[in-house]
Write a structure and sequence with these properties.
By secondary structure, this protein is of the alpha+beta class. The protein has a domain of about 70 residues: Sporulation related repeat (Alpha-Beta Plaits), CATH 3.30.70. Helices cover about 35% and strands about 20% of the residues. The protein has a four-stranded antiparallel β-sheet. It has a two-stranded antiparallel sheet with strand order 1-2. The longest helix is centred in the first third of the chain and has 24 residues. It is elongated. The two termini are about 80 Å apart.
Length: about 190
Amino acid sequence: MLDKSSTHRLIGAGIMLVAAAALLPVILDGERPPELDLDIQVSKAPVIPEVVIKSVQPLPSVDKQIEFKKLNKANDVKTKDVVVQTPKTPAPSKVTKQEPKQTKVPVVKKLEKTSKKAKWTLQIASFKSRENANALVKKLQAANYPAYTITTKTLFKVYVGPEIKRSRSESLKQEIKKKFSLEGFIVKYSAN
């Protein structure tokens, strides 16, 4: 014999079957409701005019010194002044010997590039704080060591170098250990 819960489930399933048998023919009579009978008309696609693009015309040449001065003023580049002598064109009515005019042309200081042969560098420390890394770099640079930092995702790493020979990096490691009591390790150099 079945327990009470199974009996109640079978009675409920039977009632659902009887209700479905009575109501499904009414619902599925095959007629479509009138609100679903819509006549949809799509208009023609709009006409888009063809766009003709003209070829690029070269710009007229501009005096490079004037353009360079304007560019530096716009970008606030700190420059040194260099004196360049440019000959002054004589006036057509007067034919006299004139001294060349002196013009100041700004020169932008470029960063020094390291040798492509440099293969070794000495990692001194890693910091979570940029200020601590910069303080150590200043301390090392004050002692005439070529120190720099590289920022990774969360760390600021302090390096000394790069050097072409590993032996030079080894000697730098010993010097820094004696002077600053910092234990570093030598790694392959990669310019980030």
